[in-house]
Amino acid sequence: MTPVRSASAVDAPDITTPNRHTNLRARLAVSRSKCHSAPTQTDTRGMEEDAPLSGPIDLDALDDYLLSDHAPDDCMGLSDLDGFLTGIVVGPELISPSEWLPVIWGGDEPEFKSDAEMRTVLGTIMGRYNEIADCFNTNPAEFEPIFLEGPEGEVIASDWAGGFLDAVALRPESWKPLIEHHRGGMLIMPLLLLNGDAELEPGPDGTIDENKFMAEAPGIIPACIAAIHEFWRNHRRTQTPPPRRRRSGLGGRRRR
Questions:
Q1: 15 closest CA partner among 98, 100, 87
Q2: Which of helix, strand or coil describes residue 110?
Q3: Which of 77, 118, 235, 249 is 20 to 30 A from 26 via CA?
Q4: Domains recognised in the chain with CATH numbers
């Protein structure tokens, strides 16, 4: 892999306004998660009761809607939406759908031709969100993101990376422990590079092989995301104070 700058070497990139790539509207290389075992209980603390219900996952129908004329002009595409949902799931703290759903639509209100279309679109979004959460609760190594496929069959991960960083931008302060960690920062570096928020360093011969990095990035990302998920699990353990021990009542003076 081409050498890259460390997190500290890029002067703590601004993760509040990620540089978004234009959706390529290319044919999708849909790599579905292998985690289709019995669903596990998803952490729903703080979730509003009126959050859209999860439904059957119809990615083709969701993609058709996101590309349609009646979807918001600035809404996400399917690949960046998948990256966004993944960033929400593996991030440092729980974020309610009432906060992150409007980001998907670019701040506009989505319009639907029918109640059935609305249920399909919102149900697929929540279903994919739960599918990603189930995968990281059971076997993070099996996670497979949804990337784009270009006209020559090349896999394009830049849109997915931009969506993930949109999730990071919702909680920039909370993500700083990873960004500024000497090893953790390297886990998010491929996403920053794909999104144009960091630069590749020249190789030993003094050249920068950007094409090689772009070709290798889709194979690197799943392992990086699994490691980011593990980083936050370990971080939360260290931040949680140990339970207070209750006195057994043995020893000491007996009160009258």
A1: 87
A2: coil
A3: 118
A4: 8-238 (1.20.120.740)
